[in-house]
Every structure is written in structure tokens, then in C-alpha cells.
Amino acid sequence: NVEDNRVISTDDLSYAPLKVKVDLTSRIIFDFNLWSDDRQEEVTLHQVFVRFINVATKQHVYFIAQADLKRKYSIDLNFRTAASKSFGSIGGDYKIELIVGDATLPQAMVTEVATVTLELPESKEPVPDLSNKAKPDITHVFRQPEKRPPQAI
Question: Are 68 and 106 contacting, i.e. CB atoms less than 8 angstroms apart?
């Protein structure tokens, strides 16, 4: 388990998965580099994501990792804003997985990095389940076409 305000750094994911408790005051920052198979050079791949999977509801939340000029990938996750926007105010245990894919790889790599327990205050309002409800119809009125001269001209 990781206590508040601690930085965990590891060069090897064999130490994973870590167990972390987070709440609305918490922030998780993922900073990492990707290396070639022979560990000779850093590589930049096109599809790098961090996926949170709610253990109870199986809800998936994805965040895209962007590489900077030094080929370091980064995700900065503030739970005060992400709890409602991304996680739908649903607390509980989440598995965190790193997903790496690219056209140059034979298959995508999925590695479990950590497990977090997202502790949220009890909400008085139930969270609406929008997954099974029909979305509202989209209506659109096209503008009238411009008048054109007859084709005989």
C-alpha cells in the first residue's frame, strides 16, 4: 500500500501491481518511457493508453498517454475533476492497465500496473445509468437551396 504524498518510481513493472487508495484530494501522475526490446533506445509508439477497470461494474475508463519531445509519456490525473467526468462518481476498486500498441508491434501489450481504491463521498443523488437509455433524436433542418437558372440556358 502507498501512503499519501509518496512518489513511487520503478524501472521494472515486475513490482506491479501496486495497491493505492485515492480520494478527491488525490492526484496520480504517470510518467514513463518505452524502450526497444534490447533496451538500447527509447521508442515512441502511436497508441499508448492507461485503462482503469472497475472491478465490480467492469466499467472501463481510458486516458491517452502523450509523448513529449524527450519521448517521455505522461498522464496527469486529478481525481477532483476526473471523479465525476470520467468515472461517473462511481468509487470502488479499479485495476490500472498500461496498453501499448503500434503497427510495428505484432500484438498490443497489456500490463497491469496498479490497483486503486477510489474513495468517494456518498452521493445523495443516484448516478443515472445512461448505458441502456435511448439517446434523444437529433433533428436538423436543411436550408432552402439557392434559386438557379433553368438548365436550358
Answer: no
